[in-house]
Amino acid sequence: MYGNLLVFKVSASVLRLNRDHRGNDPNADTCSEVPLSEITGLLDQDKEYVGFATLPNQVHRKTVKKGFTFTLIVAGESGLGKSTLINSLFLTDLYKDRKVPNAEERINQTVDIVKHTISIEEKGIKLRLSIIDTPGFGDAVNNTESWKQIEDYIDQQFEQYFRDESGLNRRNIQDNRVHCCLYFISPFGHGLRPLDVECMKALHEKVNIVPILAKADSLTQAEVFRKKMKIREDIKHFGINVYQFPECDSDEDEDFKKQDQILKDSIPFAVIGSNVQVESKGRKFRGRIYPWGVVEVENPAHSDFLLLRNMLVRTHMQDLKDVTRETHYENYRAQCIQNMTRMVVQERKRRKMKRYTSLTHSVISSLTKLRRMQEVLERIQEQMQHSQRGGY
Fold first, then answer.
1. Which of 149, 175, 152, 155 shows the shortest CA–CA distance to 70?
2. Each residue of 267-301: pLDDT tens digit?
3. Cα R_g (the chain), whole angstroms
4. Are 207 and 151 in contact (CB under 8 A)?
5. Residues 142, 271 share a domain
6. Is residue 81 located within the same domain as residue 126?
7. Is residue 15 part of a domain?
8. Is residue 226 situated within a structural domain?
9. Are residues 215 and 289 located together in one domain of the fold?
10. Same structural domain for residues 276 and 128?
11. Residue where one domain finishes, among candidates 293, 315, 337
12. Is residue 288 part of a domain?
């Protein structure tokens, strides 16, 4: 009934702890003696310990309980392995019921926005992953402004978040802002195509663009190196702002700095995707079997798949979200506030002009009435004078 009750009995040299177990045995009384010096030492330590060092643990518990969200959009023409790579990255199958259009259907095909949302849990950490697919991009005969659907979708998510953030109930705001765009570049060309340039220039101020050199297994190592150099030159030449990895702090260890430099040098990531388990030399792995050999998806010598996955999930996912919040969304928010302020100023000017116009019309109307009254008085005076002359 009483539970476990601790009773302190202090003597000159020991602290006597009586643990009352009257709930089980009313006559039982277990005691333990602790030297008073030890208790005093513990109390002295507590005096020097405020406790705010536990704040990271508190934030960690709260964040883990709430879970994490991440939204990824993939763009690029059909046949570059977008779906396969996404399934390989997150070990899932998002495209079970996908229907591939034929050549006739692609002639006038428009870009669609298809959203897939899955919940992933790993070691007690929950992640709500949203993949935005863009089927039809770059497949039509006329691809003029085919990126407009993607641009509008990103702006719509910013607008929805801005409305929720400005509303009365801000407790459970759902973040659907796009944090990263994997843009797939065809390996069968010379650098960036005009469509790639225009699309990335339209999106680079709204989302973090990570360029992907697709189907790297169709190129030799020398060709991959030349393709990467050419794509980087085109990105710089056309002023495209792709995602920039943050600079390492001076206190970071050398291994971390080395890995960060490897990531920076790997742009664009030359990747291979596969959801098929193959066996070679007694090992099972995800890869592709060709007449000339076997390609391993997770072999750094064959592709940058591991670098891309580590960057997206293990090392830079939070930075992608931070850049989205602090840069892209803030730019959109500032533009919205500026537009709202401009509209308010214009409305004030319009109302002021309307009041001025109304006042002007009122003054003119009053002056007109006065002039008419004055003319009437003048006519009356003339008639009176004329009648007076006739009387004489």
1. 175
2. 899 998 887 788 777 788 788 888 888 888 888 88
3. 37
4. no
5. yes
6. yes
7. yes
8. yes
9. yes
10. yes
11. 315
12. yes
Domain of residue 206: give its range.
Answer: 58-315
**pLDDT for the residue numbered 77:** 83
pLDDT tens-digit map of 314-371: 888 889 999 999 999 999 999 888 888 887 777 777 777 777 777 777 778 788 888 8
pLDDT, residue 42, reads 54
133 with 263, same domain: the answer is yes
The CATH number of residue 237's host domain is 3.40.50.300
Kindly state the tokens that stand for 49.
């310990």
State phi, psi for 33 to the nearest 5 degrees: -110, 130
Q: What is the mean pLDDT of residues 255-276?
A: 84
Summarised one tens digit per residue, pLDDT across range 154-182 is: 999 999 999 888 877 777 788 889 999 99
| DSSP string for 120-161 | EEETTEEEEEEEEE-TTTTTSS--TTTTHHHHHHHHHHHHHH
66 lies in the same domain as 25: no
Question: For 275, which DSSP code?
Answer: -
Average pLDDT taken over every residue of the chain:
78
**Residue 331 in domain:** no
> Which residue type does 92 have?
T
Closest listed residue to residue 153, CA positions, set 86, 209, 207? 207
Quote the CA–CA distance of 20 and 29 in Å, as a whole number.
Answer: 6
pLDDT in tens, 36-50: 566 566 555 556 666
CA separation for the pair 75, 149 (Å, rounded)? 11
Which pLDDT belongs to residue 315?
A: 84
Task: Please count the CA atoms within 13 angstroms of the CA of 339 that sit on its side-chain side.
Answer: 6
For 334-384, give the DSSP string.
HHHHHHHHHHHHHHHHHHHHHHHHHHHHHHHHHHHHHHHHHHHHHHHHHHH
Which tokens in the block code for residue 15? 């602290």
- Same domain for 242 and 124: yes
The 8-class DSSP code of residue 315 comes to: I
Domain termination residue (choose one: 288, 315, 342): 315
- Our count of domains for the chain comes to 2
pLDDT of 231 above 90: yes
45 and 62, same domain (yes or no): no
User: Which of 125, 146, 144, 126 is CA-nearest to residue 135?
Assistant: 146
